[in-house]
User: What shape does this take?
Amino acid sequence: MQRRRFIRAWLAAWGLALGGCGAADTRAETGSRAGAAPAAWLPTVDAPADGARRVVVVGAGMAGLAAARELQAWGDTVVVIEARDRAGGRTWTSAAWPDLPLDLGASWIHGVDGNPMSDLAALAGARLVPIDLEANRVFSSFAGEIADATLAPWRERLESIISDAQDADDDASVHDVVAASLDWESLADTDRWTVLYLLNSMLEHEYAGSIERLSTYWYDDAGEYGGGDAFLAPGYGAIVDLLASELTIEYQQPVRQIRWDDAGVTVVSAGASWQADQVVITVPLGVLRAGSIEFVPALPASHRAAIAALEMGTLNKCYLRFAEVFWPTDADWLGYISPERGLWAEWVSLARVLGQPVLLGFNAADQGRDIERLSDGQIVASALDALGTMFDIDVPQPLAVQITRWASDPFAGGSYSYNPVGADPALRDALAAPVRDRLFIAGEATHREHHATTHGAYLSGMRAAQLARDAR
Ligand SMILES: Cc1cc2nc3c(=O)[nH]c(=O)nc-3n(C[C@H](O)[C@H](O)[C@H](O)COP(=O)(O)OP(=O)(O)OC[C@H]3O[C@@H](n4cnc5c(N)ncnc54)[C@H](O)[C@@H]3O)c2cc1C
Assistant: This one.
């Protein structure tokens, strides 16, 4: 409740800035775009107003944009350094099909009530389309459609096993806990495939880590908003565009090194460097884990321990656009149980909600990572094969496809973070702790309550901005 009031106050203040003042930093009008030479930031900047500082924000995703807007609204001189040629990071609305903007990263606002993304969508004029999780049908490779009456007892049993294990003395992976209780070897093949389907669709798609890695204690340690899920008709890009407006963003500048001492910070890319009083670092956990940014001196041990212990999961998407709909249109979610664990286990149909003959297939966790090794043609063939089995038809070739590979994306290193066995959620607080009042780390992985979400990323950016300000 308190948070919602705070967000509303912040948006109101920011709305005024949008209305036309926004001019504390005249560089906002001269920010370079993709391919342009980086502006020489320090030499051209007037001294900031009293109490204001020069701040570099690394990364133009939801966290970086939030932090930059917040700091700029307070009068700081802010530049955002972004590796890609676009803003948004893991929110990415594709314009490949001009009549149908589609999100390749985040799609849903998870819980529309009190969620800052709902307020931002309203400010951006983006229509929200509710999605009905109950409108769901499940098919199999071995027995046609599977009734919920078959799935429900398994679901309840799994929930009970996991819930009991959350009270056990020691943490263990979800897989180990379930395997110990169910006695895998005694299960019929079809029951084992059904159990693995449920674990995949309930947990691996949600948290992106494999059940062999997910901590039974902590996998679901997160808060949530009510009101159901919705997606944005124009895509998340509407919010990204709104947030990125009036900011100075230097694109195509992958940061390689961040130097810091008592005098300030220097942020270095291949071809440029920026000096500032403080830096807000919002690169994904996957980038921090890959070590592609060198910190001089190294981050404190508590930060490095958090980076090592938390993990990045994978969720990949494949949009298939057909000439016409050939699948059931009374459900938004279509499940698939097969011996190939997790392969094309979840589909979303855009037929009912958008009136489009488009299917979105997902692969998560290990299957999500594995599928990235295939070519586009192999991925489509595999998807069509699954659809053919699900609906027992010859599936027509799609007119067009869009495929993601988030794990091998060097500026993401996965889709979002999760809590593996041994990763206490307090590690996220450790990662977010300010370093000597100079370095402030944000991003979804640093938000203990709402990690793995757009709103968690956004709130983490606002928190980092507040911490940077408090440190002066
Ligand atoms: C497929 C998928 C589906 C998802 N679905 C949902 C959903 O439905 N709802 C939801 O709430 N969330 C969802 N998420 C999660 C959500 O997208 C993220 O939690 C959120 O967008 C992360 O924002 P961020 O600012 O922390 O990181 P990012 O968006 O990753 O931003 C970090 C930025 O840093 C940049 N960067 C990286 N390395 C460097 C470098 N060396 N130098 C400079 N810049 C660098 C990146 O390019 C990026 O722009 C999904 C994510 C994926 C991938």
